[in-house]
Amino acid sequence: MSGPPARTASAQSAESARSRSVPPGGGPSQEVAAAPTSERRSGDRADWPPLPKRPIRGGARTTASPLARLLPRRPGSARGWHGRALRGRTRWGLRAVAVLVPLALWWAVSSIGVVDPTFLPSPVAVAQAFAEMAASGQLLTDAGASLGRVSAGFGLAVVISVPLGMAMGTSQVALALLEPVIGLLRYLPASAFIPLLIIWLGLGEPSKIAILVIGVVFFNTLMTADAVRAVPGELRKAAATLGATRGEVLRKVVWPYALPGVLDAMRVNAAAAWNFVVVAELIAAESGLGYRIVRAQRFLQTDRIFAVLVVIGVVGLAIDVGLRLARARIGRWVG
Q1: Which carries the bigger pLDDT value, residue 275 or residue 65?
Q2: How far is 47 from 29, CA to CA, in rounded Å?
Q3: Which residue, of 104, 177, 202, 301, has the greatest Cβ tally within 10 A?
Q4: Environment class of 278 (CB within 10 Å of its CB; exposed 0-12, middle 13-18, buried 19+)
Q5: Residue 268's CB: how many other CB atoms inside 10 A?
Q6: What are the Basic and acidic residues biased-composition ranges (predicted)?
Q7: Residue 230 in this model has a pLDDT that exceeds 50
Q8: Which H or E run includes 107?
Q9: Domains in the chain: boundaries
Q10: For residue 51, what is the DSSP state?
Q11: What CATH class has 116-331?
Q12: Once rounded to an integer, what is the mean pLDDT over residues 240-247?
């Protein structure tokens, strides 16, 4: 009598693979195991073990886009390099301390008479001088003149520097052409151009605005180029993979990501613009806060000089806060 037919080696290996794919508790893999052996091969996807799940730090990101996960965390983020985020009351309390402590020291030094009031007036004297100048309309007129020069000079510098910085940050040709020249010119002090500007443009407004442009445009160009170069290459590659053209990558990826950095550069250079407008108004000016400082210096009116300095600080702080709010609103998705 003949016994059961002997199984071949291939049949035995197929049955062994089918037995390994069946989990102990059964489940979907049973259907795979029940499939005909001829339709399955060794190394099929059904034989792969499941990938391990990695824990998500800081909770699940339900609102972030997949591209946003490619972005590096910035040092100014809420839980970035600065550690725990401060509460609102604590933050405002520290800001109040930063203002009140120097003011208290100033009041204490002027009260005990360590310094002659002619050279260091008290805060009360400065407040009285501020009230007198504001009542006469001098402060408003001079602040308006200086603000107009800063707006014209700084705005023109931004219009020139941002396209140049974009070109340097995205094109190696533009970087090779412009970086040596700008790197050389930025070390030339803008105040050294005053005699030349007076000879070329005269004593009117063009020479004062030109000083502002020279003092801001080179630094703002390089800082804009750095902000553009900081755009992660993964974002550009992902956009190009999805079919975006070079112009679309610049317009929809590079510019939105670099815009917060461009605004930060403008915040820094806006303070430099106020420095240069005072320098420009010290020479051959008939209005402006710098002109008012020179007038007060001639008559040793230090309280009026301090009052003008306070006005410059307040106006500069208002511009900085405006740019910071714009940066927080425009670049909130960057972090």
Answers
A1: 275
A2: 9
A3: 301
A4: buried
A5: 14
A6: 38-47
A7: yes
A8: helix 88-111
A9: 116-331
A10: P
A11: mainly alpha
A12: 88
